């Protein structure tokens, strides 16, 4: 893969949560379009991220940089933004806010096992909110001024089908994704005049480690969306002419999942 003349040649892209799933597929797709990619994850996923970096290089990325950050920590989120600006020479052209988490990751994690008002752990909700909502908001705030000065930019926020149809088994997670979708759609309206495109992506059940780890997961493998299909949908926005602003993409599955009541 690779070659010259890619859609993202000459652009720097930061993709959070890029060691696996949607983030990995997006980084690899951007690399095939000749982007310079900054890929990031938590330090404990270092081996996975190095594998992604190797694929990105083979795909034709103009450059690949790796940064490790724990996005539950606002200080580390700030450092990630600062490092991305430094690595990109002062302007990240494309920001993909993909990193997300679902707490708890199993039903065996102590007495507070759920997401709801009767069984959830507010400390888990805090961490989940930092990763799913506040980190995207903070990174966007840090990277937008340079995009505005450059006269163009792209922000892609990976929300969820649960930002449209909240699951009764996952109210805390749904709340973070509703917040991200609201933030994203407000950004779309606020930034059009600055020639900054903001895309909200609402995937249904995607075949990723996070989906499979959820205690309420009862999904059929052959009915799930593949991460590469989400990446293809994101790349589509770069195929549009500069005056076409794609606001939102919702990807449904053929059959709805079984949902805990």
UniProtKB/TrEMBL annotation:
SUPFAM superfamilies: NAD(P)-binding Rossmann-fold domains. Keywords: Oxidoreductase. InterPro entries: NAD(P)-bd_dom_sf (IPR036291), SDR_fam (IPR002347). It comes from the Eukaryota. It holds the Pfam family adh_short. Belongs to the short-chain dehydrogenases/reductases (SDR) family. This is NAD(P)-binding protein. It comes from Coccomyxa subellipsoidea. The lineage of its organism: Eukaryota, Viridiplantae, Chlorophyta, core chlorophytes, Trebouxiophyceae.
